[in-house]
Amino acid sequence: xxxxxxxxxxxxxxxxxxxxPILLAAIGELIxxxxxxxxxxxxxxxITGAICGFxxxxxxxxxxxxxxxxxxxxxxxxxxxxxxxxxxxxxxVASGLALTxxxxxxxxxxxQGYVGxxxxxxxxxxxxxxxxxxLLGPILFSHDLxxxxxxxxxxxxxxxxxxxxxxxxxxxxxxxxxAAHALGYKVVRVRIAAIAFGxxxxxxxxAYLSLVRVPQWTEGMTAGIGWIALALVVFASWKAGRxxxxxxxxxxxxxxxxxxxxxxxxxxxxxxxxSPYVITILVLVIMSADKSRAPASLGRIFHxxx
Amino acid sequence: MTLKTILxxxxxxxxxxxxxxxxxxxxxxxxxIYVGPIGDGGWTYEHDxxxxxxxxxxxxxxxxxxxxSVPEGADAQRAITQMALNGADLIFTTSFxxxxxxxxxxxxxxxxxxEHATGYKTAPNVSTYSARFYEGRAIQGHIAGKMTKxxxxxxxxxxxIPEVIRGINAAFIHARKVNPDVEFxxxxxxxxFDPAKEADAATAxxxxxxxxxxxxxxxxxPQAAAEKAGDVVTFxxxxxxAEYKPFPRxxxxxxxxKPYYIAxxxxxxxxxxxxxxxxxxxxxxxxxxxxxxxxxxxxxxxxALALKEAIASGxxxxxxxxxxxxxxxxxxxxxxxxxxxxxxGMDFYVEGLNAEIPQ
Amino acid sequence: MKLQLEKRPxxxxxxxxxxxxxxxxxxMLVGGALxxxxxxxxxxxxxxxxxxxxxxxxxxxxxxxxxVKGAPLILIAIGLSLGFRAGIWNIGxxxxxxxxxxxxxxxxxxxxxxxxxxxxxxxxxxxALGGWAWGMIPAVLKLRFGTNEILVxxxxxxxxxxxxxxxxxxxxxxxxxxxxxxxxxxxxxxAAHNADLITGSGLHWGVVAALVAVIAAYILLGRHMLxxxxxxxxxxxxxxxxxxxxxxxxxxxxxxxxxxxxxLAGMFEVSGPAGQVSIDFNVGYGFTAxxxxxxxxxHPVGIALAGLLMALTYIGGEIAQxxxxxxxxxxxxxxxxxxxxxxxxxxxxxxxxRLLRRPEAA
Lengths: 306, 359, 362
What we know:
The structure holds three protein chains of three kinds. Chain A is mostly helical. Chain A has 13 helices and no strands. Chain A has a single domain, classed as ABC transporter involved in vitamin B12 uptake, BtuC (Orthogonal Bundle). Chain B is α/β, with parallel strands linked by helices. Chain B has two domains: 15-131, Response regulator (Rossmann fold, 3-Layer(aba) Sandwich); 133-254 and 288-344, 3-Layer(aba) Sandwich (Rossmann fold), CATH 3.40.50. Chain B has a six-stranded parallel β-sheet with strand order 2-1-3-4-5-11, with helices on both faces. Chain B has a six-stranded mixed β-sheet with strand order 7-6-8-9-10-12, sandwiched between helices. In chain B, helix 2 crosses helix 9 and helix 5 (133-147) packs antiparallel against helix 10. The longest helix of chain B has 21 residues, at 3-23. Chain C is built from 15 helices and two strands. Chain C has a two-stranded antiparallel sheet with strand order 1-2. The longest helix of chain C has 27 residues, at 59-85. The two termini of chain C are 15 Å apart. The mean pLDDT of chain C is 87. Chains in contact: A-B, A-C, B-C. The interface between A and C is large, with 51 and 51 residues. Chain B: Residues 1-23 form the signal peptide.
């Protein structure tokens, strides 16, 4: 065992990069759930975003356009879910599961010609001066653009929910859709917009995987990350700031256990891998004493005539 | 489309399959059961390349069918049965977890031949085949020992099973042989295929000073992580991973099932197929060593190629004594080579490895 | 002009029966277009999926397989539907299924190789208890702390999956298995083997249990006080409280029952068709059963039919892969579409489409 071989600065920097896909997907799902919709199709939207982003980046040679393509792909798929749950008033849980099934199939069909292709590289931002600051420099300022986009999204969502009128409406719709409707808010429109935003974020997260983290297209490459993003939203008790914390914790546990192994520490991997989920349940229990609970209308179907 | 047209279509379709069943008497039908999607770029991809090679080699004489992403267990049994029912003459089941289902189906179809990859149970109509990947690991270990400057070699392992442990030992023995200071850092990923996790594992190893990464997982994510780091050497696994040539990927172990699949199909056509247990290595061509690139110094490349020749000809066995187990007890005396039984059930590290096998 | 949905005073009986048929027809059309786009004969592909397993050349083999594939789905979905009707959302059946399988297999492996009649009943008991216990965690947390059972039960799926991997690689590993992960094959241990009751019929104890569950649920919901309370809690929670329903007890009952049934399904699977505890033992029955429960409109008979339909698309899809070379992904998409359409047309049962000629008065 040689713990000194773990470099804490590099470890923190990797955790930041490793947590980006779940962070993106989770911040999108947070908005969806805050509007009172439970979309379990995150995995399907992520992998669709992964292949759309990949294909478009390869086609155009530009990772930036690829990321946009990934977001659009995820959003388009999520509109199917919106159609089912908001227009056809289908059950959220079942529709989300169907969306994942559909997305996994769709992505592998779309990706058939892209196995073994290398995407155009996404450049790292070399931020002058800031990047040279000892300690903080490598941890905070040595990443690619998407890491900062993800952070900016978290900040944006936080500010939107807390200060803006749009955030107020979103929360009203999520807490009590009947009251929100009575107040004249367009419940269905708000929710469709939220679902599309969630899809776009999940798509971005997927594209980050296929263009930066891995970077390659392989079938089933999300390997369950979308489900972790769902757990993360709960862990964060539907608060933007805590999503960030949670993403670092979830990403951190995984990166840390790999680092501990590399340093020669014999750890029971499966039991450690369980820990984020057990912690999430504990957080739910602790939170129950707190005011911050799940949006009251979460997963309930809304129809104006009710 | 009305219900009636659908039904007529169905009847037509039935007619078609019945016609197919008659036509197949002169063609040999070969089936493949895959555990992953053919687009995984690794394990299943290479098996499918083998299938395509069979098609190309035999042309109209042979028809191939496959089913991908078959879960192990009850679903596998049904998939195999279905192929047998539909007139397959030879069926390759290409994952360890298909072992019991393959044997169960084989019992019901004594006239169909079965080939199960990486297992250990046989029957009169079931053969097993597997590749001596550890021979390739020995060559990788040699190159790794020569190439490392930090003397730290990172190893991304999948599950603690004999096959993987064998690979670690073979690589370590040969790395130590050329570099007495080399150390291995081993990460168990507990997956065969999870690109994001493999990328994290590679990054963790690189951050802890590894400048050579060996992987026993199937995605190219570690290659990309090494490329990003800039000065880290990697090796392709399962497939050539040629897109990362000439650096970081300096060589590779390729699962080459083509010759075997063609030979066994030929045996069925000729009626000479018999049950056997095949464990082939570099010599018969089941394990391919991908091009050793310019990034490797010429003398090291020559040594590696010489090692490959010696293993291929059978002149040298990668597990040749004197070797001790990790706990210091004797394993192989001077000049003694390991027997296949011990290798197949290998559950210990050799002396010098500074790690524990997870229990 | 504008289309508007108008809630029916009562669900339309006609559409209850018509909507699934409509969905299947739409799926055939759209799915056929997909197959055609992939260069396959659409009629042939769809006939293979829906016709071949039932009436094709090898139907003698596929028909029993429909039972093998459908039984766990039905058994789990019946349990889930009770809770869903009462507004209690257990989406962690996959985890309860895994724990049930581990408990059942644990008993079998502990007795191995003892050949005694009581081994299998004990396994069934352990499987049900294991699933029940796993289901009680979200129930108790909900009662004690008010946590959301959707989320807790989902989290417990991941925990169960890790536990499964740990067991397959550790304590339950087959000592004669050359070091490979996975337990002994229970099919080779007669006292623990959940074999076909009539050879080749596909009729194992899990199928029997599914049938019993369907009948029991039918009676419970139609004739029993508890069933009335379940329905009332879902449809009118406040009225239910006035009628003397204790929501806490109902939560315990629904989550416990669905957990126990999922656990039983896991136990029957591990001791029968699957045979062994392996890392990838669970193939998503717990999640698919949620879909089955909804497709069956949460009605016991509907669930039985939906489970069989789902099994049909799995088996037919496999045949289409093998015979026509359709990629697995296309089948997956086809199933996804079928679910989409089934869910979407359900709206016609409870709502009427109205064409508004004038713009809505704001």
